[in-house]
Structure formats: C-alpha cells, structure tokens
Amino acid sequence: MVRKKEFYGIAFIALICFLLIAFCQKDTPAIRHRSVSFQAIELDESIPEEEHISMEEILNIQRNRLKRDLYGYKLPSNHSLIDLTLEAGGEPIRTVILTTWRSGSTFLGDIINSLPGNYYHYEPLLDYGIMQIRGPPHSDSAISVLKSLLNCDYTDLYRYLKFGMSHVYLFTHNKRLWNQCEAFPDYCWEPDFLNEFCKLFPFQSMKTVRLRLKLAEELLEDKSLNVKIILLVRDPRGTLQSRRHRDWCPGVPDCDQPTYLCSDMVSDYSAAIRLKQLYPSRFRALRYEDLSLKPYQITEDIFEFMGLSLHPEVKDFLDTHTTSNVGGVSSTFRDSKNTPFHWKSDLNYTEIQLIEEACHEAMNLWGYVRTESSNLKDFIPIKSYEIQ
Ligand SMILES: *[C@@H]1O[C@H](CO)[C@@H](O)[C@H](O)[C@H]1NC(C)=O
Ligand SMILES: *[C@@H]1O[C@H](CO)[C@@H](O)[C@H](O)[C@H]1NC(C)=O
Question: Residues 191-241: pLDDT tens digits?
C-alpha cells in the first residue's frame, strides 16, 4: 500500500518536472532576451561606477559607517567623534598590547578590536621574522614603524607593506580595513589610501609580540601619541607548551628556549615597575590567566583603562568567545577558562621541571606557582602578584 502511494507520488513529481522543463524551454528565448537587455541597462549604469569609485567615495562610505556604528556610544569626557579622529586634527585613543608569542594576545587583541570604530594594527613587526627585539640594531627601526602606524603614516613603510602583500594576515585581522580591501583591492596597499582611511578611526589598537617592554618607554614618552600600553604576560609553561605546536618556533632560541623567554619576563618586570611609576594612567600589566578566568571583569577594567565604557558589541564578543571550544589553533572561539592550563596535561613532568628550573625568578615575580609533585589535577598554578 505504502509502496504504491510512493510510486504515485514520484510519478506526480516527475510529471510536474517534465511540464516545467517543457514550459521553460518554450519560453526561454524570450526570457533570455529580456534579461539580457535588462542587464545591459544595469551594466551601463552601475558597473562603471563601481570600477571607478574614487578614494573620496570610499572614505565617505566609511565616515558614514563609523557615525552609524558609534551612534549612541558615549565617548570619554564628552568628546565627539571628531575630537578623536586624526583626519579632523583630533587625537584617537591609542592602545598597544605588548607581549610575546603564544601568550593570549590574539584573544585580547580581538576583544579590543570588537569595539566598533577600532582600527587594528596587527603585528606590525611581522617582517622582522621570529626574533625578539631587545635593543640595537633593530630597536630604532621597530619603534619608528610603530610610531608611523600609530600616526596613520604609511608613506615610508615600504617593507611593511611589501611583506603584507604576500602575508595578508597582516591586514585580515584589521577587519574594518580588510572589508574595503576585499571590495576595492586596488586601493588596499596604497599608502595614500591607507593614510586617509586609517585617520578616520577614533580608536587605534596595536599588538606586537616582538618588542620588549623597556623599549616601549619611547612610545609612552611621546606626548603627541598619548598611547596606552598593556603588557600581557603568561605562565612560561603555558607559553612554551603552546609554542611547541607552531612549526616556525622549534629551533629558534628566542622562541623555544625557556631561558630566553624567562629572562625577557624578568626584564619586562623591571620595566613594568618603572613604567607604572612614570605613567600610572597609561601603563598596565595583565596576566592572560586572569583575563581567561574573569573575561568580563578584566575586559571592563581594560576598557576603563582606555577611558571607555563597555560597548554592547564587546559584550557580544565575550558571550560568543568565552564558553565553548570551537575552531582551530589560532581561534579565539574556545573555552577561555581551560585554555591557559592545557600545559598541565600536555607537558610531561620532566619538561615542566626543566622550565621551572630556568624560570624560577620570572615565575616568582609574576605569581606563577612551582609544581611540587607530578599530580597536577588539582594544582592551581597562579597566585597573586604585585608590581613594585
Ligand atoms: C558633559 O556634557 C553634559 C551636558 O552637555 C554636562 O552636564 C556634563 O557636565 C559634561 N561632562 C563632562 C565630563 O564634561
Ligand atoms: C618527556 O618528553 C620528552 C620529549 O619532550 C621525552 O624526551 C621524555 O622521554 C619524556 N619523559 C617522560 C618521563 O615521559
């Protein structure tokens, strides 16, 4: 009985299909003809405009977008958007995250970039390769690149742009720029365009994993930049475990040697003491573990530090990025409360002890607890710390 019903059903559908095909074939020439002429009219009017869209038009679209996206968002001390944009002679709110590889800066960088109106200078020192910049010979050029970008001046950044053209992730993280690059690729790597486009944005954020903190004092000293710096620190056991999974890291001492990582952490700590005294309102340090365990509270602290209130879209970002484990290794869609502590199960005890041996002082300063036995199930690796 059922079989019979199915058969009739299929036969009926087949009949309808047949009729439809016959009908379409009969009408096709007319329809095609009409659509061609219709498209021709459209083509004449719209495509040339798209192709020849001027830089000024793109900038205008972005100006309007920013007004729309920031509508109703309270800017600090009654500033209007114009007071915060370089193109109008204002001063943007600039924030630099300073850290090292695999210390949670993708997560923190994306939190800040979820703020509408933010322009994200992602890893401006990528073209230096896998190295730490601790002083000459690279410190001057590195600082000068950072300053140029924070001033939206791409004019002399030939090497940076050339590198970016073959490593587009330099720009893709800057989603508000990348949207325009995808729509109008001709302008994307043009300094003339980038200079003007960047200057529209009231919030300018940057993250770098290659520059050590003592060198960043030069950025804080520059009054015209009025930049804020967040030093992001992570448990060296977590950092080194995470780095092992990157193919660009093993074999490079700056990256895979605990002694290098941890002497940088000690020197960053000394620099942190100094900067906290000199620039209490423009410098702060943050541990990745604390951010992961209390993402809402710490994010609110960070925005307060930036002089801003928490935008609903930042809250949305946290809602969607701090609960479940989705995505690949560089994904920030993950269980933020467990991610920092994967090393406890991923490193064997011999490896943990080797790191703790090399990192004794750094761990002490930054409040990371040494293990006492190989049973790590209930081991809590962090305690409080102070910069003083
Ligand atoms: C902001 O503007 C309002 C009204 O325009 C005023 O009452 C308030 O005092 C201002 N606040 C600051 C911090 O200037
Ligand atoms: C720990 O890991 C290292 C490699 O990273 C290996 O050489 C060593 O044998 C391991 N030790 C134990 C006890 O499993």
Answer: 999 999 999 999 999 999 999 999 999 999 999 999 999 999 999 999 999
CA 62 to CA 274: how far, in whole Å?
A: 40
Residue 101 burial (C-beta neighbours within 10 Å; 0-12, 13-18, 19+)? buried
Please give the structure tokens belonging to residue 32: 């095609």
Q: What is the 8-class DSSP label of residue 96? A: E
Digit-coded pLDDT (tens) for 69-101: 999 999 988 889 999 999 999 999 999 999 999
Closest Cα partner for 358 from 346, 370, 347?
Answer: 370
Backbone torsions φ then ψ of 367, nearest 5 degrees: 80, 35
The atom number, within ligand 2, closest to the CA of 348 reads 1
The residue count of the chain comes to 388
Check if 307 has its Cβ closer than 6 Å to any atom of ligand 1: no
The closest of 94, 117, 96 to 176, measured between CA atoms, is 117
DSSP letter, residue 114: T
Residue 222 falls in which region: left (phi positive, over 0), alpha (psi -120 to 50) or beta? beta
Residues touching ligand 2 (Cβ under 6 Å) are 348, 350-351
Rounded-to-integer distance, Cα 362 and Cα 299, Å: 25
Gap between the Cα atoms of 303 and 384, Å rounded: 22
Residue bearing the CA closest to ligand 1, atom 4:
78
Token pair recorded at residue 96:
């630099």
Question: Do 122 and 174 meet the contact criterion of CB atoms below 8 Å apart?
Answer: yes
CB 225 within 8 A of CB 149: no
> What's the predicted TM-score (pTM) here?
0.83
Q: Which domains does the chain have, with CATH numbers?
A: 55-366 (3.40.50.300)
Bridge partners, residue 119, by sequence: 204
Determine the distance separating the centroid of ligand 1 and the alpha carbon of 304, expressed in angstroms: 18
Atom 3 of ligand 1: nearest residue by CA position: 78
Ligand 2 atom 8: residue of nearest CA: 350
What spacing in Å lies between the alpha carbon of 79 and ligand 1's midpoint?
A: 10
